[in-house]
Amino acid sequence: MVQPDHAGQACTQVCYLAVPDVDAHYRRAAIAGATIELAPGSDGLGGDFYTCRDLEGHLWSFGTRDYRVGPRFASRLGAGSRRASQLVSVMAMVAVAAGAWAFHPGSASDARSVVTTAAAATERSENGGQVLHQLRRTTAERDSVREENARLAAEIALVRSHERLQRAIREQTGGEMAVLQEHLAREREARDAAVAEATRSAQELKALRADVEQQKQQRAVLQEQLQTTMAALVDARREAVPAAAQTSSVRTDTVAPPRAQRAIRARPAEAIACYRRVMRGDINWGGGTAWLPENAQALCSGTHNARRTIGCFEAGVRAGRPWRDVLAACRTT
């Protein structure tokens, strides 16, 4: 390429750039000192454009439409689509060059032919633009469908993965639940056994306490009876001493009283009644009715029934048996 001043101020270089706002760009270019060759207007393809010349003589066209195929769709367009895109770009450049040439001095006649050619190119470019638009729309719809299918496939995969996870959790939970139920059943059986054992132990302890309390009461009663018996014997002995002193025949032989255990088993009231009758002289021992307290105590201290003990002794003496043997045989009756 050469500069315009080397070619008689002819248009030697034309560039087209897409801008979002033609009017704003036009005002900035005019303020910067660019020569406006074509005022902002329609480009015949649904967009707006204008043409200016910079300080070095280069022509620049700026429009709202971008005739390039985006990199996102370039790999998906076929050979026909690429040819249509190239055709549109060429037609647009020709139209811009024709407009600029028409304003160049000495080229009015050539401009008319260029404009006519540009009109035909514009018509063809419109058809190509429609085809390109349809291709872009179809490609966009196909991409949208693919994206939707990919999204649905991902959702389906996620749902299936979630179902598998839920199934695994249910299986694991079911196994753990069975183990827990079995463990709970064993613990319940052990608890019931422990409760039963504790109940039995409590009942046994209660029975033992009752036995101990009963034994305490019996011991207290026996101690009280023993004390009463001993007191009665002491009183009876005191009463019998004067009677023994007055009798002319006092027997000095004595019989040992029963052991303390045997005395404890006796009934105090019966023993006292027996002792008093003997010491009053109601009973004949075979040699008289005067008794030593030791012999009376030996006969009566182990009795359970005073009348029966005395009757046993009297019958034995009347039968001619020694009084010692009779006393030993009858004192626990």
Strands, total number: 4
- Strand order within the widest beta sheet: 1-4-3-2
Order of SSEs? EHEEEHHHHHHHH
Structural class by SSE content = alpha+beta
Q: Tell me the quaternary state.
A: single chain
Query: How far is the first residue's CA from the last residue's CA?
Result: 162 Å
* Unreliable spans: 77-81, 100-115, 243-252, 256-265
For the record, the CATH class of the domain at 4-147 is Alpha Beta
Query: In the CATH scheme, what's the topology name of the domain at 4-147?
Result: Signal recognition particle alu RNA binding heterodimer, srp9/1
| Amount of helix | 55-70%
What's the main sheet like? Answer: 4 strands, mixed
Examine the secondary-structure arrangement and name the CATH architecture of the domain at 4-147.
Answer: 2-Layer Sandwich
The proportion of strand residues reads: 5-15%
